[in-house]
Amino acid sequence: MTEGVVPTPEEAKSLWGLEPGARHLNHGAFGGCPTELLAHQATIRARMERQPARFFLNDLPSLLREAAAALAAFVGTAPEWLGFVDNASTAVNAVVASAPLVPGDEIVTTDHVYNAVRQTLRHHAARAGASVIEAPIGMPVTTSEGAAAAVTGALGPRTKLVVIDHVGSPSAVILPIAPIIAAARGRGIPVLVDGAHAPGLLPLSIDALGATWYAGNCHKWLCSPKGAGFLAVAQDAPWEVHPTVISHAYGQGFTAEFDKTGTRDPSAWLTVAEAIRFHQRIGGAALRMRNDTLAQASATALAADIATPLGAPADMFAAMATIRLSGSALPGIDRLAPDWPTAGLLRNALWECARIEAPVMALGGALWLRLSVQAYVAPADLDGLAAPLAEAVAIVAGRAAA
Ligand SMILES: Cc1ncc(COP(=O)(O)O)c(C=O)c1O
C-alpha cells in the first residue's frame, strides 16, 4: 500500500477485523474501526491505567485540546468552539435540553429525522409545552430545491429551532442544508445540523456552512473507535449550551464544560487525530470519491435490475444510497408491510441466506435498502444483489404466512 493512495478493497479488508466471508454493506450504521486504530486506543488506555491520577489531572486537559485542534482543522472550525461528546445523540440532547423553550414554541425538523433524535425533540418539546413539526420531504426525493422548500415552508413565527440532518439516516440523502440554514438564520432562527454521518463521508467546512450548532460522529465514516462525537458551536449562538452532564467546570465556558463531564474513558477522543491520519493515508478525498462513485453506480444498477427508483437522484448521495424495495419487481415484496419490524426481519434474512449485512429502512410508506461503501467493499460485493434480496423477501413472506 502506498501512502495517500486508495488501497484495493482486498488491501483495505486486511486493515479491518471484519468477519471474513461476508458482504459488509452497512458501514453507515456503526462504522467499523481498523485494527491499528484499536491498537492506538489500547496504548492510550494503558497509559491512563499506569498512572490514573496523573493522566486525568495533569495530562488529559492538554491532550483533549490537542485532539480537538486536530478534529477542528479536519471539519473546518476552531478548537475553542468544539467540544467532544460520546456521540451525536449526546450532542443533540445537549443543544435541545439547553433551549429556552416556552409553551407554543415549535421545533422544525423533517420526516427524514433519525428516530432517536425525533424522541429527543419530542421529550424536550413535551416538557416545555412546545411542539415538533416534521416538514414533509417525502421519499423519493426528487430535487434538492424541493427538499429545501419543504423545510423553509414549515418555518413560522413560533419556530424556536430547526434541526436538520446533513445526511439522512433512513434515506441516505444529502440534504440541502446551506439554503435551509440561510433561510432560517435570515429570520433569526437558530439551526442545529445533525451531521452524524458527515465527517469522513463528505468534505466538511462547518464554519462556512453557518449553522448555529453542528453535531457529528467520528465513529462512523472517520472510523475512530466508538464513543467519539463532537458538538461545534457558532459564536453568535442565541443560547448557551451545557453538556448533558454538568460537572466541575459549570459556568467556565463551552469547551471547559464539555472537557469535564465526570470520569470516563477518553481514549476514543484521543484516537481521533490518528483516525484522521488513517483516513488521509488511505486516500482521503480520493477514497471518498471512489466510495461515492461505487455506491451510486451500484445502487443505480440494482434499481434498474429490480425496476424501482432510487431514494433520490444519484448525485444527492455520497457513499450511501437507498433503493426502494416496495413496489419493485422482487417477487412477493408487496406482501411485506412497509414498517420497521418488517425492515428488521428483512435485514436478518439477508444475513441468514447470503451473509449480507445491509439495513432495510421503512420510510414514506415503503421499504428501502441502504447500501454503504467503505474502502473494504469491492464491486463484487455489490453485484447480483437482486437474487439474495428475492430470497430474503421469500423467507420473511413465508414466515409471515406460516
Ligand atoms: C442522522 C443520525 N443522527 C444521529 C445518530 C445517532 O448517532 P449515535 O448513535 O452515534 O449517537 C445517527 C446514528 O446512526 C444518525 O444516523
Instruction: Supply the helix-strand structural class.
Output: alpha/beta
**Gap between N and C termini, in Å?**
52 Å
- Largest sheet at a glance? 7 strands, mixed
Q: Give the overall average pLDDT.
A: 98
CATH superfamily of the largest domain: Type I PLP-dependent aspartate aminotransferase-like (Major domain)
Bound molecules: pyridoxal-5'-phosphate
**Number of separate structural domains:** 2
The CATH top-level class label of the largest domain: Alpha Beta
Unreliable stretches, pLDDT < 50, 5 or more residues? none
Molecular structure report:
The structure is a single chain. The protein has 402 residues and is an alpha/beta fold. It has two domains: 38-278, 3-Layer(aba) Sandwich (Aspartate Aminotransferase, domain 2); 283-401, Aspartate Aminotransferase, domain 1 (Alpha-Beta Complex). The chain contains 15 helices and twelve strands. Strands 2-8-7-6-5-3-4 form a seven-stranded mixed sheet, with helices on both faces. α5 packs parallel to α6. The chain binds pyridoxal-5'-phosphate (PLP). Pyridoxal-5'-phosphate is lined by residues 87-89, 114, 116-117, 165, 169, 194, 196-197, 217, 229. The site of pyridoxal-5'-phosphate has 13 residues, from α5 and α6.
